[in-house]
Predict the structure.
Amino acid sequence: MDGPVSVAPKQQQQQKKIITREAKRMLRDVMDELRRVQTVDASGKNLGDEGTCFIAEAFAYNNVATCVDMSANGIGVEGVTALCEALKCNDTLTMLSLASNSLGDEGAKVLADYLKTDEKITTINLNACSIGDEGARAIAEALKTNTTITSLEMNNNMVDYEGSGALAQAFAQNSTVELLALSGNYVGTLGAAALGAAFKENTGLRSLQLNGNDIGNEGCIKLCEGLAARKDKINNLDLGNNSIGPEAGPALRDYLKDDDALTHLNLYMNELANDGCAAVAESLKDNKKIELLDIGGNNIGAFGAEKLAEALRDNESLVTLELGYNPIGVPGGKALAETVKFHGKLNTMRMGWCKIGKEGGFAFADAIKYSSSLAVLDLRGNDLGDDGVAALAQSLGVVNEVLTNLDLGYNEIKDKGAFALAQAIKNNADGSLQTLSINNNYLTKFGEVALTEAVELVQEMNADRDLYVQF
């Protein structure tokens, strides 16, 4: 079935659509779910406006479903209008997803008019709904009076400066929304500056996602100034893919060092380079709250990595560090390995494609012998070769009480390295390793068989151990 709507040949000229018998059966199933279960997944069913209008009655009389996903259904203005009319009689729904529907600005306006008076919905997903500045302005007006929405997602739309400026004005008044997601729009420098100014007055926001908005250095600086001035800090900030360079480093440092709430910070795929990384690292000496830092893909070299390693020696809050796609080289790898060896509380460290080479592999082989916290280590694409892997294998075969996941993909490993890993697995039947990834290397069937047999032998010796090798 292609969908609930078909066009009879004789009716095509009038563009009148009818709902087929089979489609009605499917629609009734959806309506039945709305009346019976709390969480309804009606996504991707090609309802269209006609199907949505058909099931709208079920929303009006629903007193069970609290969460409904209607994403990817081809819903436009007509469908969302029917839905909003029905929701006026609904007392139950709190979470609604209309993601990946072509609502456009007109559909957003209809929804916004309804949300001005709605007192039930707390979470609304409008990702990829073709909403531009006019639709964003309408949503912004709704936020000025709405007192129930706590989570608003508008990722991957077409919101430019005017729309983000309107949302900024709304957030200067709104104290209810805790999560604002605007990733993948066109906020830019001016929009980020407007949001930064508005957030100074806002007391409700706790999570801000602005990934991929090209806010640049100036936008980042203004945003940091606004966030730093808040009495009530946020706990999650995503500024990845925003063309942020080292010039914004001091602003990031000044904001982060005094923040007492932020636990998750994403700066992935910017251009912070060594100086920007050093500024962020300096803030980690004072900041004792950040648990996850993603600073991958920032063109960070050995100097930046060394500064980060130095800062982490006195930091016990960071448990996840994403550093992949930075050319930190052997010196950077050694510095971080030395920190992991005896300091900090890092649980997860991802360092794929960091050019640490086999010498960096030697350093981490030594580090995992002593680390009491590192459970996940990603060393993909680092040219470790058989020698680097053999060093890691030696550590795994002797001492391995913490490390559970090791990724060695894309490291030019041959059978010699595979044999070393296989022997290590046999030597440590009670080890903690659960997942070993060795995909995209140069193993022949002999290397694969050696590892497979080693796993089988260990599982015979220790039936409670669950070990998986990914080739």
